[in-house]
Amino acid sequence: MDKEKIGTATISSFTGFHRIIEENRAAMYRGVSNASFELIPKVGRGWKMSKKFLKHTEKSLLKEFKIRARRHIPSTPPTDLEWLAICQHYGASTRLLDWTKNPLVALYFASKGHPYRNGAVYISFGLNRAGKNEYKNPFDIENNYLWEPEHITERFSTQSGIFTLSADPRKPIYENVFFKIIVRSSSKDRILASLLMYGVNQANLFPGLSGIAQFVNREVDEYAKINDEEIIRKVLKERLHYMKNMSPINSKYIEETEQ
After folding, report:
1. Cα(155)–Cα(205) distance, rounded to whole angstroms?
2. How much of the chain is in helix, strand and coil states, percent to nearest 5?
3. Burial of 161 (0-12, 13-18, 19+ CB in 10 A)
4. Residue 82 carries which DSSP code?
């Protein structure tokens, strides 16, 4: 679909987002913290040279990544497409673009970061799924594809992740994207607070100690803004109560630490 034909709406609350999602069910969603960001894979952003030379560069860099990464991974990915997923996971530039099947995850990424810029959630019907040929030759394709890896990381699974694979990474993928929700910058903190109630937060979306640490950092920043000891004490008490009710293991640990 042409970018100009994509429907748009602006929201300033979690409730507004939920209403639009109810009316526009789809296959996948992508949240961006700045509404001006295009749906372009990282490797193609700012690339001024030809598609052919970009492909040559990608192949060379992937070869170097394979050589350097082999000692750090437990098993060797069988295809170049799966190698690209490893690259993407660790932040390397690829022709893959991250999407999610969970609209709340997309809303989180639209609300996280760039506090003075509107965010956005793109909504798509999806694409044809990648087949055997695309697995073997992800650089030599004529169409854009959808790909959900079989062997995925815990983080990818938690985020209900899915990829699009671009035939030309220099160009945005608006194919089958039919709606764009603008998230007002002034509402980002309130929306993140609402998402927290549904368990959508840094600690849960990024499993592991680094994700938990970043979550704690955000909480400290929020408490600093409140600047009221009694309110913070109440919030902390409520959070511990919430954690205690999440599982027997949490409850036992909290009781032990309170003794």
Report:
1. 6
2. 50, 15, 35
3. buried
4. H
Amino acid at 126: G
Q: pTM for the full model?
A: 0.79
Residues 6+ apart with CB under 8 A from 117: 33, 34, 35, 36, 185
- Label residue 197 by pLDDT band (50, 70, 90): confident
Neighbouring C-beta atoms of residue 73, cutoff 10 Å: 11
Per DSSP, 25 falls in state -
Place of tokens 């929020």: 222
Domain boundaries, the chain: 3-187, 189-258
Find all residues with CB under 8 Å of 202, minimum gap 6, and list them.
211, 212, 214, 215, 218
Q: What is the pLDDT of residues 226-237, one digit of tens each?
A: 767 777 777 777
- Residue carrying the six token digits 């790909």: 147
Q: Give CA–CA dist 79/85, Å, rounded.
A: 10
Distance in angstroms (rounded) separating the CA atoms of residues 216 and 200: 14
Instruction: Find, among 203, 231, 214, 241, the residue nearest to 254 by Cα.
Output: 241
φ/ψ region of 46 (left if φ > 0, alpha if ψ in -120 to 50, else beta) reads: left
Percent of the chain residues past pLDDT 70, beyond the cut: 78
Of 200, 199, 45, nearest in space to 111 by CA: 200
For residue 193, give the nearest of 251, 136, 111, 71 by alpha carbon.
111
Residue of higher predicted confidence among 102 and 240: 102
Q: What is the pLDDT of residues 213-226, one digit of tens each?
A: 555 566 666 666 77
